[in-house]
Amino acid sequence: MRNIIIPIHSSTTNLVDLKPSIHRLMIPFRDLSTIDQLEFFHKEKGFEIVLDLSGLQEINDFDGDAIGIAINLGIWVITIRLNTEINMIKKIQKIIEASASRPALVGMTDESAALINTQNIDYFDGIICGEDKLINARQQFGGSFLLILNTTIGSARAKQLGIDYRIATYHTDLEVELV
Predict the structure, then answer these.
(1) How far apart are CA 43 and CA 64, in angstroms?
(2) What is the CATH number of domain 4-178?
(3) What is the DSSP letter of 40?
(4) Which residues contact 125 (CB under 8 A, 6 or more apart)?
(5) Around Cβ 6, how many Cβ atoms within 10 Å?
C-alpha cells in the first residue's frame, strides 16, 4: 500500500530510494511550470501525486486554467488550507467536478482541533493534521474521510490510529520504515 507521502520541495530532492509502489509525492503548485514536474513524476515515473495548493493564500494567487490542466494529468489528491476563503474552495471544487480524474480535496491545518469542526469541512474529502487531532477523526467524519498525518510515525502506530496516509520527510521516513 502506498501510504507514505513525500513532499518534494525542490528539484534537488533525491528520489533514488523512493518507489511508486510505496510512496506518493506531494508537489507544491507554483504556476504552469509545475505541469512539467507533474508529468515527469506521474506519467514517466509512475508516482501518485498530491498537488499542494496550500501556498495559494488569496484568490489573486489562483490560476484555475493551470490547476485544471494539472488535475487532468491524473492527480490523486489536492490539498489546500482549511482556512482558505470559501470562494476559492468553491472554484477548486468546480474544477475538480469538471475533471475526468476527480481527485479528493483535502484540508490542511496546524490549528486547534476546534478548527476541524468549521462549516468549511463539508467541502473536503479529508484532512491533514497532527496525531492529537486525528485520534477521534475517524469516528467524527466517517470511514470514507481521508485521514493524513503530517508527522512521521511507524506504520503499526498509523494502522492502530486508523490513519490512511502519513506525510514524512525523506530521511525520517526511511529511518522509521526500517525500525
Answers:
(1) 22
(2) 3.20.20.70
(3) I
(4) 104, 105, 106, 144, 145, 146
(5) 22
Whole-structure pTM value: 0.79
For the record, the C-alpha cell of 153 comes out as 510515525
Please name which of 149, 81, 156 lies closest in space to residue 120, comparing C-alpha atoms.
81
- Burial string for 125-146 (b: 16+ CB within 10 Å, else e) reads bbbbbeeebbeebeeebeeebb
Residue with cell 518507489: 19
Q: How far is CA 2 from CA 46, 47, 163, 166, in A?
A: 12, 10, 13, 10
Mean pLDDT of 8-23: 70
Q: Which of 163, 10, 102 is nearest to 26 (CA)?
A: 10
Q: Which three cell numbers stand for residue 125?
A: 474529502
pLDDT in tens, 123-161: 888 888 777 777 777 777 777 888 887 766 666 776 776
Helices (DSSP H) in the chain: which residue ranges?
A: 33-38, 64-71, 86-98, 131-134, 137-141, 155-161, 170-178
Could you state, in order of their start, the residue ranges of all structural domains in the chain? 4-178
For residues 151 and 166, is the Cβ–Cβ distance under 8 A?
A: yes
